[in-house]
Design goal:
mainly alpha, 8 helices
């Protein structure tokens, strides 16, 4: 399994439990996999961030929230998020906001800004970056 994709500790622990292992045995299996390099939360965070950022176009806030839900530590999350360059991050957000702007059927500028802001917030982008890009778009 570990050769096909990255797993975090929590996923493998839950998978071992679903196979019928008692929690102590499941933890022993996870510890073995970590010790021998089959599982690494940092590698998992980096792969997760690259995948969700590239294909789902999620922002840092949503990525952080989802990784914390998987039990990944803050240091590993920061390492995963560092794979996203600042220029590429803002460029992706600007492109997504431009696409969204085309689909909004309103002439009221305040309403357009609100819809764009909510769209970006739902994707997990930081409000200060979103506000700056929307300000430059209008």
């Amino acid at each position: 399994m570990c050769s096909r994709r990255e797993y975090c500790r929590k996923e493998m622990f839950e998978k071992a439990i679903s196979w019928g292992c008692v929690p102590s045995d499941a933890q022993e299996v996870v510890d073995f996999l970590v010790k021998h390099g089959f599982i690494d939360d940092r590698r998992y965070a980096e792969a997760y961030v690259k995948d969700k950022w590239r294909f789902n176009k999620w922002g840092r806030i949503k990525l952080t929230y989802m990784l914390r839900g998987q039990g990944v530590g803050d240091a590993d999350i920061r390492a995963g998020l560092s794979a996203i360059g600042e220029d590429a991050y803002t460029e992706l957000l600007a492109d997504e906001l431009k696409k969204k702007r085309k689909s909004i059927k309103s002439d009221n500028e305040a309403e357009i800004k609100g819809k764009l802001f909510r769209f970006a917030a739902g994707r997990g982008f930081e409000s200060d970056i979103v506000a700056e890009i929307i300000r430059n778009m209008m």
